């Protein structure tokens, strides 16, 4: 089925280059790629948009569409009609009589979601009423990111009109602060401490994790002073050999705090237990976009706590050195 020609909207600046990210399941990605990549190649050529698909053996993949807004709309139209075609084909072998809607999931910086929702939900209500599409903005951020999923469901024509309106809002309200993009991962790798050794679980095997082991061993050396006649143990370069408690402070944007705290505080409690450090997160200050984290303990405790916090953002470690997004003191 050939999608109809997408009409140009009267607003939104068609010469502006935008990047829209979609979250898809493996089966959906396979449909977009097609045999030997023929489908995605056709979409790129006919829309004029750049369409990139994230690599990796993950249940979810990110499809990134970049180009002028008119090219993005054409690409979305082709994707929406391809998904509708898949639904129609699947129904030929199904007793179901009602056709389910086409569903696309956009990945949007959390700082832009307020503009999509509007005051009291006015903007999202307007989108639903004017396009006929169902639009839902997830309340929680996607794991290890500052992005949320925006789900659009409906007929392809309704989805295309809705995407146009979302693009206009995103152009009018650029993201604020640093954005940590969502990157789908394979099943998470748990860490186990046993006999002073750290192991990461990969498949059926426990693989020794030497960096974590070293930090864990140092963190567990809680003796406030050495007995007479005993020399100070050698610490690796870069770590203070002193066991005296000290304090380290981090200043982190509000948008990132949820990634560290975790659902109902599970992640921050895990970091406290594994590192042996005291970690306090200051309350949000009115008018401030940042929160302060205070880490107290021995240098080894602090090092392990910092390591574990960094591990929460391991895919964007460079962001920790970016003064525009985060500062340490």
Write the layout of secondary structure elements.
Elements: E1 17-25, H1 26-33, H2 38-47, E2 50-53, E3 60-68, H3 69-91, E4 102-109, H4 110-117, H5 122-131, E5 134-137, E6 147-154, H6 156-172, E7 191-194, E8 197-202, E9 205-208, H7 210-220, E10 246-253, H8 254-261, H9 266-275, E11 278-281, E12 290-297, H10 299-312, E13 327-328
Antiparallel strand pairs: 1-3, 1-4, 2-3, 4-6, 5-6, 7-8, 8-9, 10-12, 10-13, 11-12
What does this structure look like?
The chain contains 10 helices and 13 strands. Strands 2-3-1-4-6-5 form a 6-stranded antiparallel beta sheet. By secondary structure, the protein is α+β, with helices and mostly antiparallel strands. The N terminus and C terminus are likely disordered. Helix 7 runs antiparallel to helix 10 and helix 9 packs antiparallel against helix 10.
What attributes characterize this protein structure?
329 residues; 13 strands; disordered N terminus
Strand content: 15-25%
Structural class: alpha+beta
Q: Tell me about the biggest sheet? A: 6 strands, antiparallel
Beta-strand segment tally:
13
End-to-end span in angstroms? 59 Å
Q: Strand order across the biggest sheet?
A: 2-3-1-4-6-5
Helix content: 25-40%
Low-confidence stretches: 1-13, 222-242, 315-329
Mean pLDDT: 77
CA-based gyration radius: 25 Å
So how many helices? 10
Order of helices and strands: EHHEEHEHHEEHEEEHEHHEEHE
Using the alpha-carbon principal axes, give the shape. Answer: elongated
Summarize the structure.
This protein has 329 residues and is of the alpha+beta class.
């Amino acid at each position: 089925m050939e999608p109809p020609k997408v009409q140009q909207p009267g607003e939104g600046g068609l010469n502006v280059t935008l990047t829209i990210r979609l979250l898809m399941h493996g089966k959906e990605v396979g449909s977009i790629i097609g045999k030997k990549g023929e489908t995605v190649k056709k979409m790129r050529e006919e829309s004029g948009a750049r369409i990139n698909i994230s690599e990796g053996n993950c249940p979810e993949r990110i499809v990134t569409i970049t180009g002028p807004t008119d090219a993005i709309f054409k690409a979305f139209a082709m994707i929406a009609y391809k998904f509708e075609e898949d639904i129609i084909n699947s129904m030929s072998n199904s007793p179901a009589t009602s056709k389910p809607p086409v569903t696309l999931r956009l990945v949007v910086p959390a700082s832009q979601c307020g503009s999509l929702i509007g005051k009291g939900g006015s903007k999202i209500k307007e989108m639903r009423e004017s396009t006929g599409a169902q639009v839902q903005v997830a309340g929680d951020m996607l794991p290890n990111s500052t992005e949320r999923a925006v789900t659009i469901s409906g007929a392809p024509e309704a989805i295309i009109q809705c995407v146009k309106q979302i693009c206009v809002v995103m152009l009018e309200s650029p993201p604020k602060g640093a954005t940590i993009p969502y990157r789908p991962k394979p099943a998470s790798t748990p860490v186990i401490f046993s006999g002073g050794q750290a192991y990461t679980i990969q498949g059926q095997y426990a693989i020794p994790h030497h960096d974590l082991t070293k930090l864990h061993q140092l963190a567990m050396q809680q003796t406030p002073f050495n007995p007479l006649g005993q020399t100070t143990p050698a610490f690796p370069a870069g770590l203070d050999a002193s066991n005296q408690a000290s304090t380290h402070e981090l200043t982190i944007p509000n948008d990132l705090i949820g990634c560290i705290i975790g659902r109902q505080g599970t992640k921050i409690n895990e970091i406290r237990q594994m590192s042996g450090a005291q970690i306090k997160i200051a309350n949000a200050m009115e008018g401030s976009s940042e929160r302060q984290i205070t880490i107290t303990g021995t240098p080894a405790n602090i090092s392990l706590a910092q390591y574990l916090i960094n591990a929460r953002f391991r895919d964007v470690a460079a962001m920790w050195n970016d003064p525009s997004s985060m500062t340490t003191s």
